[in-house]
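Q: For a teaching session next week I want to show students how multiple molecules come together into a single three-dimensional assembly. I've collected the sequence lines for a complex. Could you give me the predicted structure tokens for the whole thing so I can convert them for display?
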Amino acid sequence: MTTQEAVRKEKKVMLVGLPNTGKSHTFNNLSGQYSLVGNYHFTTMEITKGRFEKEDSVYELLDTPALSGTYICSREEVIARDAILNEKPDILVQCADANQLKQSLSLTLDLMELGIPMVLCLNAIDETAKRGIWIDSRRLSDMLGIPVVESVATKEIGTQELKEAIHKAGPARGLMTYDAMTEENISTLMLKLPADMEFRRKIAMLLLQKDEYISGFIEKKYGQNIARDISSTAELLRKNCEGSFSRILSLTVKRRVEEISRAVMHKQKILLEEHSQRFSQLCRDPFWGLFILSGVVWMMYILVVDVANTVSNWMNQYLWFPVSNQIDIHVHSLFWKEFLIGDYGILSMGLANAVMTVLPILSFFFLFFNILEDTGYIPSICILTKRVFEKFGLSGQAIMPIALGFGCKTMATMNTCCLRSPKERYITAYLIAFAIPCAAQMGLNLSILGRCGVKAFLIAYITLGVAQVLAGLCLNKVLKDDQKSDFIQEVPRMRMPDPKLVLVKVYYRLYWFLKEAVPVFMITAVILFASDKVGLLGLIKQITSPVVKNFLGLPLQMVDVLIVCVARREAAAGMIIKLVQNGTLSVTQCIVAVVLTTTFLPCLAHTVALAREIGTRKAAEMMAIINVSSILLSGGLYWALVFFQK
Amino acid sequence: MIEKRDLDECLECLWHMKEEGTVLVSVLRQKLGEEFDGNLLNILRADGLIELSDAGEKVELTKAGSSAAQLFIRSHRLAETLMHTVLGDISEPLACEFEHMVIPEIVDSICTLLAHPRECPHGKPIPEGECCKHASVNSESLLIPLTQMKIKQLTRVAYIHYKDEQQYHKIESLHISSGTIIKLLQKSPAYVVECEDSNIVFDDEIAAQIFVWKHFSPTGALISTEAQ
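A: Of course. Below is the structure for the complete assembly, covering every listed component.
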């Protein structure tokens, strides 16, 4: 950074908006960085930071998780609101879906009351014409008193205009006012708030609306006594209020939203039903939905098993074997030969395992998974499976985190914070941690089982499914009942995925895999190599032999796999593929190995997320239960398979 | 000169105080402002509608007073709900007029037409009437819970029985609220409605809390006479 750059004041720009309104796309366009995007709610669960420049100004950009309003309905929204209250951004950029303007306008009016300069970014403006909607953005800007920018974030259209608007953004005009009584109540409470407190009007309003989280926020900043004093004044004012404060405010806001949308939004009266809508309905239908779901699983199976495995075999044959042969010929020292290409060789088990075996499988799986994500198909699975999850005492709200577990278990676990009921949160976190394979593992499992035939695939996945159902039913019985979370959410509109965006996402997922996992693969190989040389590995194998060999019916090489599994599941799966290829594992053992590695020990990032959501003690207990269940399940499966084979 | 209307207002005010948990005459004086007259309380006590403490500091509604005040409150809040449901807005002076004019049978009929709402649009509870005790929605009701609607039908939301404030905010943020036009797309495995150009999914419990117009014409008339 030059001296001139250093003296320039960095302004903080925060991206906010309802779920699925293109915040992360806008973040990527403005900052030139890449943050994961998806066509479903709460893809972003943490604050992501980036930077951009406009003329002589430097802006720090913050992408936040979704926010439906400054009043907090569930814990996942606290992240975004607290970010606004703590970070005190200089400019707020609200991303809105132009096709659902009314929903976003309520949030706009709500956020404007914070008094922060604001810009409204109307995303997906290209889709409005198709849906017979026309928005007069200039009039909208006049009525709101803030700049409004039209944008197609997925195609990077409108980014320069947005930067321009951010650069020129000033205080908002045309703020909301309420009836005299309400204004008086707000003013009375504002006088009670500490003089140095920011956003006093908004905080007073939230207190009057009985927002559960705002008192905690005040307590953290100003201590228990002040918080208690403020809360009791708010309580008194609430009592004297003619009705619920929230309803009174919202009646006024709603009138204003109607007034604005009537003036700026024009709709065609006749509109043909969109094919995507029809397809979306079919995906949620109890009959056709299951039919489509089976088709999706079948396509995934074909792609990963037939195509990816062929590519992987080809890469091993033409790219790795010649290299390993050359090393075999030219390196004469047995020690170095083993270190490089032996059973625990840094190149064979580390690099080749990651690049030649795992990478092609993940490439195809991510390609398919990203297409599913971008079409907005995943929420349909949540609706379809709702009745099943009800049997576990879970509301529909809990299904989305579970479905997200098939992508990344860590993010899915973080998503459980949207559940109000501790019981639901525990069961959901358990089910995510137990028998759900994450995207990477799912792809590799398919590849392993596909080598043994469809029957093996069905046995393994039916076992995992049954285990999941039993675990859900047991937890529902054992845990004490509490208030279930409300299940109400928007179903994202299904759309044709943009091939470029899908490929970019595949690229980044693979890039992150290579960046994070390859060093882990190689370090694990070195550790195993060293442990083997000093005899530690042999000792571990000897100790665990009764369980691994006698109970689980697996060869002792599986101990290596389980050790690697702790470091990185993909590495473990890659090792299983090698064991299948060299004939060490029979079909039965292969099924047991997949079930064991899927359910055994969550990865490190997942464990940390689990401890954060349900507490360290409960997380430790859960891990112990999961590991015991995993061994019992795998052992039981082995003996059942042996019994039926007789 | 104290008129009947002043007595009604006083009873209504005492009901509000009961909801707030206060019995002090000083609070009543503050609430009524210039309209407060010491004789008001004497007349109401003589009619057996209130009880005054010996020192005259505390005032409470008797059983008969409670019943009378309840009817005013019920009428007022039902009038607000009716206006909000039909017109989409509330006229406070009109609701005040209404509460003094209606008789219990008419109030019960309005309550039945509206399928026995539990809260006024401001979120205050509507006291239960006789009609509310004998089950809920019947053929006279113009409003029905969403669970009784047919798939593909278009309707307008009349009101929602919210469980708590959090649920209110959550549903409100998705723009399902009084006056919104919705189309029921499916009922199973979960309810899905089309609302303000988006699809919203929710469970059976929430569907039962949403009350909609039984007959609705998208051309403008709220109640389709043809359908009736």
